[in-house]
Amino acid sequence: FGFETVDHAGDLVLTGEIQRLSVVERRGYTSDVGLMLTVRDRAGIKTYEGLTAGSSRRFGRAYDPEHYLGALAESLLEAVDRLVRDDRFRAGLLRADLSAVTLAGGH
Predict the structure, then answer these.
(1) Single pTM value for the model
(2) pLDDT tens digits, residue range 32-59?
């Protein structure tokens, strides 16, 4: 889509809530991320609301913080990839003149 993110005064505002966030260490690391996201235009009208999720599984030794963070990062990347491929999300972005998107809480 190629848009700029800004702290305020964007054409759209993207907000989100973490629904699931976990890493289980058992013969490797299995992680799961679920996000509920909402996009609103300048008038506050909701143009998109939906859930996106991602998961990952990776090998690693027990209780290594880098593996926990890596597993979560991979899950988050998968969730974002699914989001940008979601036709409803893309349609929600296209409902406004998209030059800048405000990410709630900064970027």
Answers:
(1) 0.79
(2) 999 999 999 888 999 999 999 999 998 8
In angstroms, the CA 8 to CA 104 distance is 8
Three-state DSSP at 65 gives helix
Closest CA to 99 of 50, 41, 46: 41
CB atoms within 10 A of CB 90: 13
Tally of CB atoms within 10 A around 73 = 14
Mapping DSSP to helix (H, G, I), strand (E, B) and coil, where does residue 85 land?
A: helix
| Backbone angles phi and psi of 67, in degrees to 5 | -70, -35
Eight-class DSSP state of 28? S
- Strand arrangement of the beta sheet that strand 4-6 belongs to: 4-6, 100-103, 12-25, 29-41, 46-58
d(CA 40, CA 51): 15
